[in-house]
Structure formats: structure tokens, C-alpha cells
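Before the break, one more example. Copy the sequence into your notebook; we will annotate it together after we see the structure.
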Amino acid sequence: MRLILKSSPLHKIFFFLILIILAGCKSQVRAGLENGDLLFVTAKSTGLSGAINKVTQQQENVSFDHIGILENSRSGAFVLHAAPKGGSQRQDLKSFLEEQAGDGQRVVVYRLKPQYRKTIPGALDKARSMLGKPYNFNYILDENSYYCSDFIERAFRKDHIFELKPMSFKDPQTGMTNTFWEEFYRKKNLKVPEGEPGCNPNGLAGSGKLERIRELR
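Here is what the structure looks like once it is written out:
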């Protein structure tokens, strides 16, 4: 005997209401965001995040330790980024935001100024071509792994949107190499790459080619 379940009009209405609510939630997350927006994640005060910020912060009240680029597509909104967990990846925007919130960090949207936005399609194509690469835990440039700001700089490199600059691991207050980074590279049996070319989220946020839009809540 085959059991046939008939769907009542009330069940159908309930189902469509759920779909509308879910669609509304996604739309609310994406509201006001544009393809190619850069999502900067605020830095923590301790650990690796705090160490990155301490030697890279350029502006008071601007402290970031991570960055990704937004890709709006027919299937949804995604963040293309390089992270310690998962390497270079394409992550659902909602999942990305929840992950940052779970770590007590906030996300701030920056956008290329109008005269530079024509570079976004090419940058997204390049970013997609770098997906699947491992994370660069040494923060020394190479072609087989990327760290977050490196991933973004490379995405826009063809159009020279950002530039590599000599990295510094010195504490601005003392002028000495930050103790965190001394220990960090000692454990890897590597020399602190002082003066080597690189980039960081705070440096990218300070670019005159970007404008700060808003904090996502």
C-alpha cells in the first residue's frame, strides 16, 4: 500500500512564507553591497591578530587583520579570501559574517572609488583563479600560497591598484623588532623578513583609491 500525503493550502502558504523570510534575510545581508567591495575585518588586541595590527596600524581608529573581496552572483553573495583555516576560498557571505562575529570581530566595507571600479571584473577573475591554494603562514611572498592582503593585492596587481611595500616587524614605540614576531620566526627557523616586499590589511585600507562605506551589522 502506498501512502499519499496531500499538501493542504495552509502547508503551501507556510512553505512560501518560509522561502520569503529566508530570501529576505539574504537580501538584508547583501543590501547596499556591490560586486568587488572589500570587506575588512577588525583586529583583536592579542595573539597573531594583535601582533599584525601592532606593527601595521597606520591610522587611529583603523585596525584590521583580515580582508576579502565580495562576489555578487546569481547564486548568492560570496567572499573570496585567503584565511588560515581553509586557505584561498570562496565562502558564503552569511557564513563569513557569522564567523567573524563569533570571534568578536566586526566587518567594515570599503569600495574602490568610481574611476577604479572598471578593474573589478578582472580582479575577481584573478581571485577565482587563485582559489584552492594553501595559506601562507610565513607571510613571505611566494607563488604557491597566499595570505589575506597578498591575495587581494595580487587580484588587482595587473591594474596596479595596490602596491607592495617594505614590511616592518618593529614596534613603533620602541623601534625594536616586536617580540611576538621574533619568537614567531625563530620557531620556523626563519629570519624576520624585515624590509622584504609585502602588504597588510591596514596598508590596503589606507589606500587613496578606496573609500570607507560602512560597518556591517
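Residues 29 and 94 are 7 Å apart (CA to CA). The first strand starts at residue 38 and ends at 42. Try to locate both features in your own notes.
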